């Protein structure tokens, strides 16, 4: 269930007052969703301090009419473009300064909007309004995480040497959709063997071989909200070779230590950059700092990648209700890589990991003891 329109509307109008704006034009689908329940790039929201409007064409007008009780709904067409409707409201309410989401528009789109609207236009970013999730949003994201959790357990049992990465991704995505996912949160990453050294290696036609490490990074979108999960497994069938003798075994332990330490440090009042530092310092102390090139994590919600970030430069202070990933990794060219990722909810006293899948190094196909 998405954030109720009334709470989203109240938060937006308080935000307007704090920034001395008379109104805001919202076009980003992720920022419209909490008001409309519809994930679409089409149409606009126009919210003033005293009124709220949805502007949509005939494709979505009737669907929105059943959802938008608190909003004035306007149908747009060639004779009644969105800019003309907005200008009419500006004139009626005598508005002077209007914010617009420049980050979600191209340069030419921004220039066009500025030229058409009869008010001073101010570029703004509404993403901060989505940082702290409401209880219904948290429950929905937990459901998305449960789908991913079940899919991870399934795919670990499914993987066999001789399969292609693409086959594995297809099975994983099929399973999630059968568990209730609307679609994947992003293109599924399946990286086996040396391809594990590529953090964003989308599933390919490479054949998975016995004794390789395989990293799977995936997520489910459920009722408009995303999950994001990564596990690295050892592919079964390596004969009598000791797991501890595998060239990536020690790497796995370093990544796991870094991930667990970062999670343990998460609580309200801690800066995001300090969480990143916890994971990064462990990896650097082990001699692999040059092989960890991305952030430790990111917020997640309607978008799979939101702000704030567990990065070296993000000084955002954590608050209860924020949900972020924790996903350190080490990537060694010509050898492979390891990444482990959970979604974590910041609570009043610490945090809650939203996955149950064990994180000790597991082999595909084996039963968990």
TrEMBL record:
Keywords: Aminopeptidase, Hydrolase, Protease. Coiled coil: none annotated. Gene3D superfamilies: Creatinase/methionine aminopeptidase superfamily, Creatinase/prolidase N-terminal domain. GO terms for molecular function: aminopeptidase activity. Residues 140-348 form the Peptidase M24 domain. It holds the Pfam family Peptidase_M24. Residues 11-130 form the Creatinase N-terminal domain. CDD domains: APP-like. Its EC number is 3.-.-.-. The keyword NADP does not apply. This is MP-, MA-, MS-, AP-, NP-specific aminopeptidase. It comes from Obesumbacterium proteus ATCC 12841. The lineage of its organism: Bacteria, Pseudomonadati, Pseudomonadota, Gammaproteobacteria, Enterobacterales.
């Amino acid at each position: 269930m998405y954030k109720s329109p009334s709470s989203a509307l109240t938060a937006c109008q308080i935000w307007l007052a704090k920034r001395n704006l008379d109104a805001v034009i919202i076009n980003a689908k992720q920022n419209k969703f909490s008001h409309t329940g519809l994930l679409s790039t089409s149409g606009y929201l126009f919210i003033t301090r005293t009124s709220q409007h949805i502007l949509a064409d005939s494709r979505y007008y009737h669907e929105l009419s059943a959802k938008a009780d608190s909003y004035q709904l306007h149908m747009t067409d060639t004779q009644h473009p969105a800019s003309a409707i907005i200008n009419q409201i500006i004139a009626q309410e005598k508005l002077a300064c209007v914010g617009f989401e420049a980050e979600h528009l191209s340069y030419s789109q921004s220039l066009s909007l500025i030229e058409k609207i009869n008010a001073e236009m101010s570029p703004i970013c509404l993403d901060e309004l989505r940082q702290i999730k409401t209880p219904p949003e948290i429950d929905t994201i937990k459901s998305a995480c449960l789908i991913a959790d079940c899919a991870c357990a399934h795919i670990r049992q499914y993987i066999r040497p001789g399969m292609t990465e693409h086959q594995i991704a297809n099975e994983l995505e099929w399973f999630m959709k059968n568990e209730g996912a609307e679609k994947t949160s992003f293109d599924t990453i399946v990286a086996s063997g040396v391809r594990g050294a590529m953090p964003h290696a989308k599933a390919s036609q490479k054949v998975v071989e016995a004794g390789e490490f395989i990293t799977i990074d995936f997520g489910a979108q459920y009722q408009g909200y995303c999950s994001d999960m990564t596990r690295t497994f050892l592919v079964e069938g390596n004969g009598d070779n000791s797991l501890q003798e595998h060239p990536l075994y020690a790497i796995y332990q370093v990544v796991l230590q870094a991930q667990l330490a970062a999670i343990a440090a998460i609580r309200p009042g801690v800066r995001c950059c300090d969480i990143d530092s916890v994971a990064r310092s462990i990896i650097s102390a082990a001699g692999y700092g040059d092989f960890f090139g991305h952030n430790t994590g990111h917020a997640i919600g309607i978008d799979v990648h939101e702000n704030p970030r567990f990065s070296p430069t993000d000084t955002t202070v954590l608050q209860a209700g924020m949900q972020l990933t924790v996903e350190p990794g080490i990537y060694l060219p010509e050898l492979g890589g390891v990444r482990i990722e959970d979604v974590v909810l910041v609570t009043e006293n610490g945090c809650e990991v939203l996955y149950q899948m064990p994180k000790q190094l597991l082999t595909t196909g084996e039963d968990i003891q």
